[in-house]
Hints:
By secondary structure, the chain is an all-alpha fold. Helices cover 74% and strands 0% of the residues.
Amino acid sequence: MLIDPWHAFTADFGTMPKPWTGFATLIDIAIYLFFCARVSMARHKYKVPAPQTDGPEAFQRVLRVQANTVEQMVYHLPLLWMAAFAMDDAFAAAMGIVWALSRIIYARGYYQKAKRRAKGFLIGLAVNVVLFIAVLAGVVASF
């Protein structure tokens, strides 16, 4: 199929069934990309060439924030989108925004001291548990 760039903005362009969840997803991904950029800057600052992952503790904390975020995203994003369809777009989007804020809290704490990461981690975990329960309820109600 040939894509016509002159007609990209037609009546159907931009039609998204769950726009708020889409927006929250973009915020979640933007947070992750910011953490990736922080790892790149930390590699330069602490002189830790890729692919090395060992270096000063400050570098390791920055790397762990990025790694833990991608580990969480593996199940957060599918739950987020399943909740948008099983429950409600606004509900899922709100959970996505709270999760993004939890990642910021997690990162700020972890950058200072490893033991300060718990609050952000627990908030994010709670969001994902709520999403899981919501999706489970929606799936069970579908039978």
